[in-house]
Structure formats: structure tokens, C-alpha cells
Amino acid sequence: MPNTTVRAAAEGMPAINRRRLLNLTGAGLALAATAATVLKAPAAPIAATPAEHPDAELFRLDQEMEEAYSQMNRAAKLCKRLDRKCEKLYPPDPPKWEEPPMPEDVRVAFHAMTVKDMGTNRPAIYAAWSNEVKEQRAANNGLQQAYQAKWQEINRESGLDAAEDAFGVRVSEVDEFAKRICSIPAHTFEGMAVKLRAHVRCGGEIEKEEMYTDDYAFASIAADIRRLAGA
Predict the structure, then answer these.
(1) Does residue 75 form part of some domain?
(2) Separation between Cα atoms, residue 22 and residue 153, nearest integer Å
(3) Which domain holds residue 43?
(4) How far apart are alpha carbons 200 and 184 in whole angstroms?
(5) Are 176 and 108 in contact (CB under 8 A)?
(6) Fewer CB within 10 Å of terminal CB in the chain, N or C?
(7) Where would I find the beta strands (DSSP E) of 72-201?
(8) Number of domains in the chain
């Protein structure tokens, strides 16, 4: 069969969510690894040599994606370690700003104000309370900004920012392999299994309802089945 490209299956692929993949480390990666192992179960012997196999290109990309996937996992684990390190260094969260309740005497003065008074003729008691509230809000904003600056400094100096950037590069590499794999028609069940492995490596599920939210691999496999069935 001609090795035509299945563009429809590859188009519209969602970008991989970095945080979702990062959260796959630990228990999540164990699940993904188990699924990938099942999908790698030896297939029936093929008479043709690997170079002559109709899905040889998919097998080659599968091996290359496995290496990219391993590098992504290592980058994710580094991010996890650095994140735990940073968590111990972060300062306490500053208090959340809440406007204080208006005292009763200020409330009376406020309700007695006219629209004209709102401009330059505010009662002194209300003006003093309003200015005090503004100062408190400004002070709290200063605490929030100082906290964010310290948080960013810790992330930068610990290497977490650089590690997350590197992880993002690895995620993009895995994503590109998945797109390339799903754009190539599979001619055998072994070739379709390559697409399932690509789906799992991108954080997809194969036995849960969630699998239907990232179904571009399955759309590609469906196209393979229709083509092989002559539909």
C-alpha cells in the first residue's frame, strides 16, 4: 500500500500540558510505563526483515521517541527535586488583603454624603478612614510584591526556572514525535501499537474515560483500520 500521510489525524492535535506531564512522575509515570510495557508485548513473528517491514518508519520513530520520552522523564524528576527544595526556602505567605469593616460613625457620615460631597467635600471622619484603608492596602500590596520577588529569586537561583524551561523543551520533542507518528499510516497491528505507545507517552490514558479527551492517536488508528478494511 502507498505510504501516504494521514494529515487529518495529525491536524488539530492539542499541545501537551507541561504540568500534566510533570505530574505523571511518580505514580503517574508508573502507570504510563505499565501501559507502555503491555503495548510492547512481542508480536507474532514477521517473515520480512525490519527494513522491509511496511511499518519500518513507525518502528524507527518509536525508538527515537522512547529516548526522547526517557529524557523528558529525567527532566521531570529534576524539576520535582528542585521544587521540593524550593518549597523549603519559600517565605510564609503574606496575609490576604481584606478591607476592614467601616466603623458606625464613619458609616453615618458616609450615608449623609451627597454626590457632590464625593468629590472634594467629603466629611473629615470619612476621608481619614478612607485614607487609612488606602495605606493599609498599599502596605499589603508591598508585602505581596516582596513575596513574589523572593519566590522568583529562589526559583531562579535554585535552577528551577532553567529546569522547567528544559523540561518544556523535552515535552515539545515528545509532542513532535507523537505528531509525526500519528501522521504516518500504519499497515499492521504492530504499527498501530506504536501509536498507542505514543499516546501513553504524551500522558494519555488507554483504559479510562480521560482517553477520549486526547483522541488524536485513536483518530489516526481509526483511519488505519478503515484503510486496511477498504472502507
Answers:
(1) yes
(2) 22
(3) 7-93+160-229
(4) 17
(5) no
(6) C
(7) none
(8) 1
